[in-house]
Write a structure and sequence with these properties.
- This protein has a single domain (about 65-300), classed as Glycoside hydrolase/deacetylase (TIM Barrel).
- The chain contains seven helices and eleven strands.
- The protein has helices at about 65-75, 130-135, 145-150, 155-160, 180-200, 220-225, 275-285, and strands at about 95, 105, 115-120, 140-145, 165-170, 230-235, 235-240, 245, 260, 290, 300.
- Strands 3, 4, 5, 7, 8, 9 and 10 form a seven-stranded mixed beta sheet that branches.
- Helix 5 runs parallel beside helix 6 (about 220-225).
- It is an enzyme of class 3 (hydrolase).
- This is Polysaccharide deacetylase family protein.
Length: about 300
């Protein structure tokens, strides 16, 4: 399949393909199967025609020397090399969500921009240093939260939300969805939707099933439609402790890939902290020359 935004096959979520459950946690031990994609008419963002003024070495194109120095210092604080800047959000969003009917399932965004999208699941680890890290680095993430895991400290995720990061639906208590009755699947999604909407002021637009399980089943698609989210989001890579697990056999990122990580701490990361794991994730992305863009900037939400 051409994974660079052109000629991608459009498939919607009523397919019968079942996803393998992850070996550990919410899927960090193994990714989801290749998911359906949404059509795109967006062209790749074009660079400015005017050359930027001379900058100190290491300054990102278009940035002021002062801002660049501040950014470099922030990354150095975390022992990291800055990522390339993300391009402007596309005016024509490549993922267009339907207002009604079956919801699409996707694990990548059709784009030629050399960007990936970072998503973080569950909410078990609430490390204040991670808020500091995202404040410093300004790397966008999308959060898929599980009500019974985050309800002891909703406020922690409000601090991350205040940085511009969106909150999405990840069920009430993280069950394997294909093993639940249709009624139970609905309650898992609808009750999480209600709680997250009440706490964070915005209804979650997206849903991720735990382990990616049941993502392509009619029962889950119906439950998602009934509860409010307008897409099921899977992933192409999942972050372990020091490296990513890839679905692609060449173990390389592709433009538009969605990357899965988790709110995890030393207990689950063999002594590593959330910030150390996230730093390793950013280093793997930087090594391959990718920027991190905001997933929601590439999605056109349906009109109310």
């Amino acid at each position: 399949m051409n994974r660079h935004g052109r000629g991608r096959t459009t498939v919607y979520a009523a397919g019968a393909l079942a996803l393998l459950a992850a070996a550990t946690g919410c899927g960090s031990g193994g990714g989801a199967a290749s998911a359906a994609l949404v059509p795109s008419t967006a062209a790749r963002s074009t660079a400015p025609t005017a050359a930027p003024p001379a900058q100190p070495a290491g300054t990102p194109p278009g940035a002021s020397p002062t801002a660049a120095a501040g950014d470099a210092a922030a990354w150095a604080k975390w022992h990291l090399t800055p990522l390339p800047p993300a391009p402007p959000a596309p005016a024509d969003k490549p993922v267009k969500l339907p207002r009604t009917g079956p919801v699409p399932v996707f694990s990548e965004v059709p784009t030629n921009d050399k960007v990936v999208f970072v998503t973080i699941d569950d909410g078990a680890e609430k490390d204040p240093r991670f808020v500091e890290m995202l404040t410093d680095l300004k790397v966008p993430v999308s959060m898929f939260l599980t009500r019974d895991i985050v309800k002891d400290d909703y406020g922690y995720f409000k601090r991350l939300q205040a940085l511009g990061n969106r909150i999405h639906n990840h069920t009430v208590d993280h069950p394997q969805m294909s093993r639940q009755t249709p009624e139970k699947q609905k309650s898992e999604i609808c009750d999480d939707q209600a709680a997250l909407t009440q706490q964070y002021g915005t209804p979650p637009l997206l849903f991720r099933p735990p382990y990616g399980d049941g993502a392509h089943t009619p029962a889950l698609n119906t439950a998602v439609q009934q509860c409010g989210p307008r897409a099921v989001v899977l992933w192409r890579e999942s972050m372990q402790i020091h490296d990513m697990q890839y679905q692609a056999t060449d173990k390389k990122l592709r433009p538009g890939d969605i990357v899965l990580a988790h709110f995890r701490g030393p207990k689950d990361l063999k002594g590593e902290t959330m910030t150390e794991m996230f730093g390793e994730l950013l280093a793997r992305i930087q090594e391959q020359g990718f920027a991190v863009a905001r997933l929601e900037d590439y999605i056109e939400a349906p009109a109310a």
